[in-house]
Amino acid sequence: MKATQQLHDLGQSLWLDNITRDLLNNGTLERYIKQLSVTGLTSNPTIFDHAIKNSSAYDSGIRECQNRGKSGEELFFNLAIEDLVRAADLFRPIHQQTNGVDGWVSLEVSPLLAHDAATTLAAAKDLYQRAGRPNLFIKIPGTKEGLPAIEEAIFAGIPINVTLLFSRGQYIAAADAFMRGIERRIEAGLNPQVGSVASVFISRWDVAVAGKVPAALNNKLGIAVASDIYKAYHELLASPRWQRAFNSGARAQRLLFASTGTKDPNAPDVMYVKALAAPYTVNTMPEGTLNAFADHGDVSHIMAADGGNYKNILWQFSQAGINADALAAQLQDEGAKSFVKSWEELMSVLSSKGETLKKAA
Q: What is the C-alpha to C-alpha distance for residues 107 and 79, in angstroms, rounded to an integer?
């Protein structure tokens, strides 16, 4: 039995952190579903930037959109929705079998809206309606400005993947926004079953402190922070607040571990996947990490619900001069800026490809 199936059987969902038209066209995604227990996927502007830049599979779609007068963001979302609708249909049987717990795909709103709640909400509603698939998450960053949009989107019945979360405090704020949206639906007599995940980024912590802490602490911060958040997740699920919502028919916002590909070439390539094995969570991983874990991963460790030894590790980092709260804010801000950069590059690639295709016509 492959380690990916063992992880799935443990109760953790394995999602692919990638989508390309080639993956869809050549049957690779379907193979991952059947052979590697993949039950969902995530996307972001960087992923689409690389996909469109490095493949001719989108050329005909770009031409067709241009012929209809579409360009820029409008052209991109046409291409992205086409891909994600196809992926959503592949995962639809899983979504139905699990009664909506699993089988999701994710599409992010424009990162240019990360600090504009009203426009983010309008974009989320538009994209969800255009896709027309019940198993599509709209990704909204869990920034201070994004939280009101998350609450309003949940209240409006739009499934949300809250992205760009790094710390316990950021996770709790996102979970609170989700809960407020659900509680308002209950109060209004609406169905409280609105899907959501809270995506916590892991490896970027270790990249940020590389070379700034003793060697004994290398690659330990991300997992310690994840353990802290996992404890907070369990505390929420055990709280009277959540149990009241559950009693009214709500479904929990699942914790999702993102950025789980190992960045340190001297560290094991499945380090984060192995350390973050936890029931009723999601791990979305890059293609290389997924294949590596299927090949030589093992499920010998299960995360402790109380976080295990994370407090001692976080204390050691504080003694080494790392202010985790300040770093979390920095990482969230840098993540938002990175997605904006990828978005701008993506728009540039679409424009360049469009011009090239026009000349070749």
A: 11
Instruction: Phi first, then psi: give them for residue 238, nearest 5 degrees.
Output: -90, -5
SS3 54: coil
Give the Å distances, CA to CA, from 101 to 193, 201, 348.
Answer: 10, 21, 37
End-to-end Cα separation, the chain, in angstroms: 51
Place of tokens 């409008």: 74
CA dist 203 and 283 (Å) reads: 13
* pLDDT tens string 73-107: 899 999 999 999 999 999 999 999 999 999 999 99
pLDDT digits (tens, 9 = 90+) for 258-292: 999 999 999 999 999 999 999 999 999 999 999 99
DSSP 13-30: EEEES---HHHHHTTHHH
Q: How far apart are CA 217 and CA 210, in angstroms?
A: 9
What are the tokens at 179? 């809960």
Query: Are 139 and 104 in contact, with CB atoms under 8 Å apart?
Result: no
Q: Which residue has the higher pLDDT, 104 or 54?
A: 104
Instruction: Tell me the catalytic residues.
Output: 139
Q: Find tokens 């080639």 and name the residue.
A: 22
Going by the DSSP 8-state scheme, the letter that residue 216 receives in this structure is G
Examine the pLDDT at 361 and tell me if it is beyond 70. no
Q: Residue 102 contacts by C-beta under 8 Å, 6 or more apart in sequence?
A: 13, 39, 40, 94, 95
Which residues sit opposite 285 in a β-bridge? 16
CA-closest candidate to residue 175, choices 276, 105, 256, 244: 256
Please give the backbone phi and psi of residue 254, each rounded to the nearest 5 degrees, phi first.
-80, 150
Exposure string over 71-94, b if 16+ CB within 10 A, otherwise e: eeeebbbbbbbbbbbbbbebbeeb
b/e map 218-237, b = 16+ CB within 10 Å: ebbbbbbbbbbbbbbbbebb
